[in-house]
Specification:
Trna Endonuclease, Chain: A, domain 1, 8 helices, 74% helix, 8% strand, elongated
Length: 386
């Protein structure tokens, strides 16, 4: 412990120690500053140059920063303008795309609506067709019912025959259900002239035998069906030959009408001997197609016969027509002579009228030609009135 001016100081006191340390530190700093100041005086000149260069560098950096700021500002403005332009372009493109999509969707909606309408119409048409098919199916079933009965099947063949004959021949050339002298009634009698004379067309339909033939599964069934088919057709041929070929009344033959092209084709394809037997019996088998051709031939025969019947009347009319033509020529000559005389008279009248006009003009002008000879026949005498 020490005493300074009556004040005791404890050297072990931490405060005193701290103050002492601080004083020593200050002393050291002062010495360092003094040394630094001595050194600074020697280095002041180069440091001033460096400071000046540093200032110029700082100014250059400031200017560069200013330029950089301006460039960045320009770039920012350009970027902003480009961004705005890009936004406008994108908006315009989006608007166009939206409009195109709207139009496309609208057109697609219209097309879809039209397609749905057409589809609905087609479905309605299909429904109608389905209804017609169902009705046709029922009609087919009814036709099967008709063909399964012999009487109704015969009526069906007669109706088909009537339709073909009425289309091929004039009304006065045929008769349906005509009764012959033997009391038999023919389905159709065509009034052909002699020769060959009226010919009968009878409708036959060997349906059972044909169906048995088509439905045969075994060889034995087929042989039996062929036998039945031959027997049925031969029976029809004999019945037609016995009933409808009458000497002196009908033609020397008759037609057997099969209202089925399939049955007709089957006969001519596989039963040629039966067809030839029909030829021998003067019974000719025809189908709807061949019947129409045969009837057209008959119509030509009728037309030729009627032309022959009318040949005399035609010659008589031609003679009268020739006389009328000759008479017409004579009257035309007379009329031509009258026209010639009338033309001559008209010419003389024109001459007289011209002379009368000239005389009237001279009288009006008191122009009398001297020495003009006037005959007594040209003088008109005026008789005094009684």
């Amino acid at each position: 412990m020490i005493r300074i001016n009556g004040t005791e100081i404890d050297l072990t006191d931490p405060v005193v120690l701290g103050i002492g340390a601080l004083g020593v530190l200050l002393l050291v700093l002062i010495v360092a500053v003094m040394r630094l100041s001595s050194r600074t005086r020697h280095a002041a000149d180069p440091l001033a140059g460096h400071m000046q260069q540093l200032g110029e560098t700082v100014r250059a950096l400031a200017e560069g920063q200013q330029q950089l700021y301006g460039g960045l500002k320009t770039v920012s403005e350009s970027q902003a303008a480009a961004q705005n332009k890009m936004i406008q372009l994108i908006e315009a493109r989006l608007s166009e795309v939206q409009r195109n999509m709207t139009e496309s969707l609208h057109g697609s909606a219209i097309k879809t609506t039209r397609s749905l309408s057409e589809l609905q119409e087609r479905l309605a048409t299909i429904d109608k067709a389905q209804s017609k098919i169902e009705a046709l199916s029922s009609n087919v079933l009814s036709l099967q019912d008709i063909l399964s009965n012999k009487q109704t099947r015969g009526a069906f063949g007669e109706i088909q025959l009537n339709d073909i004959v009425s289309k091929a021949l004039p009304p006065d050339a045929y008769s349906f259900q005509a009764t012959l002298s033997n009391g038999k009634r023919a389905d159709c009698l065509v009034h052909l002239p002699n020769p060959p004379g009226p010919i009968v067309i009878d409708s036959k339909f060997p349906l059972e035998a044909y169906e048995a033939l088509r439905g045969a599964q075994t060889r034995a069934q087929k042989i039996e069906a062929e036998r039945l088919m031959k027997a049925a057709v031969r029976l029809h041929i004999k019945a037609i030959s016995d009933k409808y070929i009458i000497e002196g009344e009908t033609a020397d033959g008759a037609l057997m009408f099969l209202p089925s092209e399939a049955v007709y084709a089957e006969l001519h394809a596989n039963f040629g001997e039966v067809v030839r037997e029909g030829f021998a019996a003067r019974v000719w088998i025809v189908s709807p197609t061949t019947c129409m051709a045969t009837l057209n031939t008959m119509r030509a025969v009728m037309k030729d016969a009627r032309m022959r019947e009318q040949a005399g009347a035609i010659r008589r009319e031609l003679g009268l027509l020739y006389k009328d033509v000759v008479r017409l020529g004579e009257r035309a000559e007379n009329l031509d002579r009258h026209f010639g005389q009338a033309a001559k008279d008209i010419a003389e009248i024109k001459i007289s009228a011209t002379k009368a006009g000239n005389r009237a003009r001279r009288l009006d002008e008191f122009d009398f030609a001297e020495g003009e000879a006037v005959s007594a026949t040209d003088v008109v005498r005026l008789e005094p009135k009684g």
